[in-house]
Amino acid sequence: xEMQVASGDRGNALVLRERLLLRGYDxxxxxxxxxxxxxxDLDMYVLGGNPSAMQYLAAAQLHRDRGxxxxxxxGAPVLxxxxxxxxxxxxxxxxxxERHSGAGLLDVxxxxxxxxxxxxxxxxRIPLRDVVGTPLPVELGRAVIGVYSEGRRMFRGDGxxxxxxxxxxxxxxxxxxEGAIQGSIIATGLQ
Length: 191
What we know:
The chain is of the alpha/beta class. It is 20% helix and 26% strand. Strand 11 and strand 12 form a beta hairpin.
């Protein structure tokens, strides 16, 4: 949904479209606005995110409107980045520790982490770290490069596998793996 624009979901979608066009595929973007139904017949879905109250509204919309759920059931690929990944999970946590229901399409939960020397609600300037990893499904390529924000942590349940093995040093207590893959959904906390 257009509510999820702060972390570059439009930019990610534009890059994917351009890469498809360069390879000779027809590709167009379809935007979903607040209150609109999500079409269940698109070829691919990209969700970015906004670490604010807007993500909880987007999660509620996706939970009510089952268009994305139907698309996932038929195997449509979904790329969920940052808060886009959080809202697809079972629940995500606000900076104040309040739990908000997610869309329930991915077996993950996302918490706001306390950063050394700060109280939980003090977001201030969140440390960012460059990350390099290798996708665990080898068909996804040789490397993933991104930026990790130390303000959130995604926990995978038994239904989700890790997306990548980190080649960078341990990040904010991560176990050497990042993100989640479940069915046709790829989710990452990287930007």
